[in-house]
Specification:
6 helices
């Protein structure tokens, strides 16, 4: 059995094995391209905060290749080490996304296949963290479940916890944090069955 508190130790121990087998066909490309299209330019390069960045492959690598400046954050040191190997020029920060306070804005915030490992309570608290790191009109994209509930998945044969709020709860939390929903696609068949949220920060 897995709990939210076991997520980081599990990725610390088994994340490297998971990273080796991670699908790199970039089934996420369509959504990443949509996020990029909604990412504003406030400086010479668009800045992306990748929360739960993992090994950096294939997502952060793709964003970097598209000309975005990526800052990767992960609570597992083993995953940050892999991220630094994959993207030696990118900034990598070993930190828990919960309560993160970098004190700077980003043009896009991404929490892909990471946010849903948090408990429902911690997910609710993350929306203020998203807002505190969002530049004006910043894009926000994250994956969740299709509806409220908890599930146990696996990485490298080890159980891992997943949780989701209801779509109505996410819409309410996004609105309260100053985001408007651009799109929500539950169990997108073209993205490996992921439920994807794309939003824009409008609280300037």
């Amino acid at each position: 059995m897995s709990t939210p508190d076991l997520i980081l130790p599990t990725y610390e121990s088994h994340g490297p094995d998971w990273a080796k087998s991670r699908d790199r066909s970039l089934v996420e490309k369509r959504w990443l391209d949509r996020m990029i299209a909604h990412t504003p330019l406030h400086s010479s390069r668009r800045r992306v905060l990748d929360l739960g960045c993992g090994s950096g492959r294939p997502i952060a690598q793709y964003l970097s290749e598209r000309g975005l400046t990526v800052t990767g954050v992960d609570g597992a040191a083993a995953m940050i080490a892999l991220f630094r190997q994959a993207l030696p020029r990118a900034r990598a920060i070993h930190a828990d996304m919960r309560g993160l306070a970098l004190g700077e804005p980003f043009d896009a915030i991404l929490a892909w296949d990471s946010f849903f490992h948090l408990s429902a309570r911690d997910q609710r608290a993350m929306f203020s963290t998203f807002a505190s790191h969002a530049a004006p009109r910043a894009a926000l994209m994250f994956t969740s479940g299709p509806d409220a509930g908890e599930e146990i998945g696996s990485i490298a044969g080890e159980p891992v916890y997943h949780a989701s709020l209801s779509p109505d709860d996410y819409r309410t939390l996004l609105a309260k944090a100053g985001f408007e929903v651009i799109d929500f696609k539950p169990e997108d068949p073209d993205c490996g069955g992921r439920s994807v949220w794309l939003a824009r920060f409008i609280d300037e």
